[in-house]
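Why this split exists: single-chain examples teach little about how molecules sit against one another. For that reason, every record in the complexes split bundles all components of an assembly together and asks for one structure covering all of them. Below is a record exactly as it appears in the raw files.
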Amino acid sequence: MRRIAIVPRALGVLALIGLLTAPVWAAGHPYVLHMLVLSCIVSIAAVGLNLMLGYGGLVSLGHMGFAGLGAYVAAVLMVDARWGFWSALGTAAIASAIAGALIGLICFRFRGHFFMIVTLAFGLLLHAVMNNWDDVTRGAAGLPGVPRPAAWRWGDTVISFGQLPNFYYLALAITLAVFALQYVVVRSDLGRVLGSIRQDERLARARGVNVIVFKTVVFALGSALAGVSGVLQVSFLRVAAPASFNMLESINTVLVVIVGGAGFLVGPAVGALLYVTLPEALRLANEWRLVIFGGLLVIMMLFAPQGIAGLAYTLWQRITGDRSAR
Amino acid sequence: MSVLEIRGLHKAYGGIQALDDADFVIESPGLYGLIGPNGAGKTTLFDVVAGTVQADSGSVRFGGQDITGWPSHRRALGGISRSFQECRVLPEESCLDNVLFAAQPKGLAACMWQAFTRNNAHRRRVTDEAMRLLGLVRLQGHAHTPAAQLSFGQKRLLELVSVFMSSPRLLLLDEPASGVNPALLEVLSDFICTMYAEEARAFLIVEHNMEFIMALASDIIVMHQGKVLERGSPQAVQASPRVLEAYLG
């Protein structure tokens, strides 16, 4: 049994090697790298939502509204104010976090379904602002000309992020950092407090947890990560468009987290990869994505309510005969 | 300085007066029983003392401090630890993690600091104590079992162990014996006595199992219709005609 315990780690290392060498094995297929970058972007937002939903028990249906907020803050700063990518990214993350904290504080007055409806409403509201505030966001047509990060130079070596492999490594590095952050948060006293709020809020309170403070923090953190994802997306696609941050995208992010496995560290990665690649692999139009994911969700709810990561974990427990808690 | 001072508590739910001038003082550590017929206001009193319900009027003082307006998490950190009538544990966490959660720091700054320093010294330090207490209630073999897989009686014991882990000065136990089979009841009773012998704290125990509470507590407070009806030793309370009337009348 001890020898078998190495398998998940080995799989993780293999996946990491696969991702790191993608520009090599996918050389000549920019399409593959393109999809991997999109997966990275989706997974960053999904990590944010996983912290809120999977660990803190807060189901937000307006998550991509905060991604859009961050995206537009950065896009306007980069296009109109000529800011650099990194300072715009930091500012956007902070702006999303503050908006998340303030909006969260309003939403926490409601519970369960009502909480979800209020987050949905704020998501719609943020989207309406992006779509209609023509002077700043250029409205529904989108804000074109968002730059990639400035090239890095060491002597004669120049790394330009206009090239896909370089941008891929940048997106991958940010994604890995976000997953590391998720790990740090989840496997700590902070993560344990969040878990207690999800499992039994009354008990958490009776044990001394100031529930509102922790909910606000996780909402702010999740929104900040959504903002980072949004900035990366508009910099990658070079245009900020409101349609990327509408209600449908918010719901998709919830699906990504649930199908991947809410409350599992690898859940957002699994969900995002599946979400981006599955419809492509089946060569279906984008419109079918929702149908596939909807169908998948029904099957998941019936047979694997903990998502793919949860299913894998249960199977793993069967194989090793390990009955202990996660 | 008294441990707990309840003064003139009133609480109405619609037309029902759950607490009607409830008034008593717990002067010193000890095992106190709180009994009364159904609807006497015992659980409401617990909720008011624990801070989950705000009284309409009256005051609660804890260790000489007026805590009437404090939210429940602040009272918990201040040294009031409660168990629930319906028994609450974290279902997904293992028994050990349930107990360790009760002992861990709950402040945001402390939690974030721990997250980024990965400092587990506190956790390691309390693990021995957690395992010792789990051993006292014979759950050490289930230390790594998710709490959801325990029997109801075992969950009660787990909840009880967790209640001690925050080093409280006042413990509010809401019907700890209900739903627990006689064999586990003995374990539970021994555990409370052992913990009391180790450190004199104030226990306030709501209970319907008369045999259990009369053997355990040295001072019984009887509530009836939202007020304190009688108070005294188990013998005195059992002999009181007013108490008999409240229960039978």
